[in-house]
Amino acid sequence: MKSDITWAKSNRFGGISLIISGLFIILESAIIGGLKSTIIMLTIIIVDGIVLMIYSYQISKKYCEK
């Protein structure tokens, strides 16, 4: 990361996002179980990773182009 602000904001958002995703995964695993649960878990993790990359890119563009 080129900027300390970008690094801090991306990590703050990522931490909160991963905690929320983890809670959803725990909840759906307790309710659904089995192969469906694994597919849902992987989907949540992949979507969360994509959201984190997009957010980091947007923050990077906002703070590093000034």
TrEMBL record:
Official protein name in the record: SdpI family protein
InterPro entries found in the cross-reference section: SdpI/YhfL (IPR025962)
Annotated transmembrane regions: 12-32, 38-57
Keyword annotations from UniProtKB, A to Z: Membrane, Transmembrane, Transmembrane helix
Pfam families tied to this protein: SdpI (PF13630)
